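Changelog note: in this version the structure field was regenerated for every chain. One regenerated record is shown below for reference.
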Amino acid sequence: MSRTSPLVVALALALPAVAAGQTVDATALTLLSGRQDPRDGQVHTVVPAFEDIWLTARDLDIPGVTGTKIVVSGWGMVAGGDLIDGSDNVTGDLDVGYIEGKVLDRRLFLRLGRQLVASGVARNLQLDGLDAVARLPAGFTVEVYGGVPVAPRFGYTYGSGAVGGRLSWRPTRVFEGGVSFVEVLDDGRADRQEVGADARVFLGDQVTLNGLAAFSAIEARLSEASLRALWQARRNLEVTLEANRVAPDLFVSRNSIFSVFAEDNRDELGTTLFFRPVPRLRLYGDGFAVNDDSGTGGRAGLRAALALDGENATTLGAEGRVLAVPASRYVQGRLFGAHRFGKKVTATLDCDAVWLDPAINAQDLSLTFAGTVGWDFSPGWKALATALTGQTPLLEWRTEVMGKLVYNYDYHATKKVSP
């Protein structure tokens, strides 16, 4: 497959959608930024300009197909300044580009093109291919997908491919469970083979239980396991208990040298909390025991956001986080605020400090200040300007500026009725 063929296919899908779609939504984001890039013992200035476009066309007039939709999203970049030798100053990629719909009285769902498959052990697999989901009697559902895994900038590796599926069962409204598998080939060799099981149970209106177990057939060990219980005690109080095991090395391609340096296992056990004691105050907290290859430690955090007036025109907040395991430790403190000037202008300020242990480049402090101003200057148009400065272990002092221009477009067609 050529390097440009996915983009050609996406445009071929998008142009008829604009003409035939009953509802077309489009968003365009233009981003111009300037930043410092430390390399080779020197600080270089790089000025990239990004263009991000998202197009959705719904309710297409296709006989025998319902719920039709075409989605195309891609980006392009033009970079100036002191670039790395051999790097492209003009580049881009296609994130998604697919057409979907339901046939056979809505019992069969089909999606064709570049997409993300998230069911079961697929874990947001980016794929150029087909995803088919069939609803069967007695609450059963079968999903099958296959194609070519996506590589950056339209690239493909010879011999690459992916196939997978999931069988699920939902006999009642309170239970849903399934089994799934995925196999990914990289350069003709098996890179990933996983089987898994997942389930969700609703205990009344307040408690939800979720579980997932994934097993790597290649390594013959668990790649991921998790249990989660969510208790919605009241409308303003949520408590979650979680237990997780992850094998980070199994999430890295077996053909990559980085898989050798990744951790074998990471276990976490803890809780998260959301509480809104009064309408203007939101509290978030979490605490976990952590065990990895270096030993046992923990992580915790607390965040509070307070609206100073009933219209939420001014919001102030603070956040703190800490991580302590034998291999490393850090403490983070953050202050932030936002204010609306009328209905069209919003400003934010942010101060973030992180203390590192061990130090990096003999520096144990990272300090960053940032500010943003947003202006809704016309219906569908918004402009934002951001400035960021501070010191990090990589730079004695860093400064970045960014400008964003966002445009949202909605088009609704009306079908003509023959007399």
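Spot check on this record: The chain has two helices and 22 strands. The two ends are 48 Å apart (CA to CA).
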